[in-house]
Amino acid sequence: MTELGIALIGHAFMGAAHSQAWRVAPHFFDLPVRPVMSVLAGRDADRTRAAAERLGWAEATSDWKSVLERDDVHVVDICTPGDTHAEIAVAALDAGKHVLCEKPMANTVAEAVAMAEAAERAAKRGVRAMVGFSYRRVPALGLARDLVAQGRLGRIHHVRAQYLQDWIVDPAAPLSWRLDKEKAGSGALGDIGAHIVDATQFILGDTISEVMGTLVTFVPERPLASTHSGLSGTAATGQTGPVTVDDAALFLARFGSGALGSFEATRFANGRKNALRIEINGSAGSLAFDFEDMNVLQFFDGTEDAAVSGFRRIMVTEPEHPYVAAWWPAGHGLGYEHAFTHQAVDFVRAVAEGTDPAPSFADGLQVQRVLAAVEDSASSGSWQQV
User: Fold this and answer.
1) Is the dihedral of CA 27, 30, 31, 32 positive or negative?
2) 3-state SS class at 208
3) pLDDT in tens, 272-326
C-alpha cells in the first residue's frame, strides 16, 4: 500500500483542525504511506459539499455509513459530537477501517467500554484505533515526558493541572451542543478536563487511581442559538434553554505512584483564552508549562548549586526536541495546529508499521473512568476509586 484513504466525519472546529493536519503532514514529514483526503461526511449535504471544497476533500457525502463500504477508505477520522462517537467507531472498526476518534472518546463509560472492546477485536485483524488527545503532541510536553522518564525530577510528589478558558463567561452567550449533556456527555470536565487528565498521565507515565471532586454550573439557562460556528454563535431572540452540563470542575487526585494531584477545568476564567497549565514537582526538580506560551518549558533542576539555581526557560524549538526537526529553523515557534499534524503523522506511521498507536482506546477508556469517578464524587461528596 502506498496510499491511505481518509474519510473524515464532521467538518466544524475539530474537522477543520484535522483537515489541516491531513493536508500538511505528508509535505513536512517523511511518511511510509501517503494520506489521501478521500471523502468528507456531514449531516447537511450542501454545507458538507462547501466544507469539502474549502478544506481540501475530494468528495462529500451526507451518509457517513456509506464510507464504510468504500475500498478507497482505510481510515475513519471521527470529529463529531460525543454522542455519536461510539456508534461510528464500532461500526468502522467492525468494517475493517482504522479509526482516529476525537476526545473525549465517548459520553459514558459504557460507550467507551464498547469502543475499547471493538478496538481489541479489530486489533486481532491488524486494524488500529487511536484517541485524539492532541496536546500530548506539543513538543514541550513531549520534552516534559522525556525529563520525567530520565529521572530528572526524581520521585514525583505533586501534580498541578489547570485548563482555563472564558468563552462562555458572558451569560448571553448562546447554547451549543457543548452545553447539552446528551450530546457532550459533560461540560468543562469532559471537554477540556479530559485533556489535562491525559496530558498529566502521559507526562508521568502513571495513571490516576482515586479522585474527589465538585462540579458547578454558574449559568443554568442560556439563549438558544440561531447560528453557531466553532465556539461562538448568535443568540435567538426571546428563546432560552437549560444548560445541562458543568461550567467548572475541580478535583483532587491520587496517582498510582502515590503522587498527589489537583485539577481545575473551567470555561469561566475571564481573560484566559486557552491556558492549559501543568506544574509537576518532584524530589529532584520541577517543571511547568502553559499552552498560552506553548513553545516554552520551565525546568528547575534541584540538584544544582542553590546559589545559581532557578527555573530555566527552555525554548522547545530545537531539532533535538520531539517533532521539531521536520519544521522550521530553531527559534521559529509552532502553533496550535501543529499538534494535530503530529497526531496524524504518528497515526499513519503506526498503521503502516502495524504497531499499536497511543493513546489507544484502552487509554481513552481509562480517562473516561476518571471523568465518571469525578462525577460520582461530585454527587456523593466522597473519594471515588477510578
Assistant:
1) positive
2) strand
3) 999 999 999 999 999 999 999 999 999 999 999 999 999 999 999 999 999 999 9
